[in-house]
User: What shape does this take?
Amino acid sequence: MTNKNSAALNVETDQLLERVYQVKPELQYEVRDGIVFVIKEQNAWVQRMLRKIKYKIPETSEMELDQYGSFILQQIDGQRNVREIGEHLGEAYEEANNQLYDRLLLYLNHLEKNEKYIERIG
Assistant: This one.
């Protein structure tokens, strides 16, 4: 790799680490003993129809995040950037320091693009 490519990668990495995210306002979740439970409405037309004919379909479901996911979601406040979240994660969980920012960026991308729990604001 040439120095030119290396410098370009460093600039791109720095830009990624400066990103700021916020939890989407419509996301419903609860924190219990440090673990985040995301609450999703079960409001598809089939579920509503089955409820009308007295099937016991819960109106919500919960998805429990693991300890890392819970920690990260609670760090996302619209002010901390990825670098700061990573520093806090590394301090709280020493074992998370192995490939910290690679994994953190992948997880944040998953939360933003796939789950749609967060949005980038900076």
Residues 7 and 98 are 23 Å apart (CA to CA). The chain has one domain: 3-120. The longest strand covers residues 35-41.
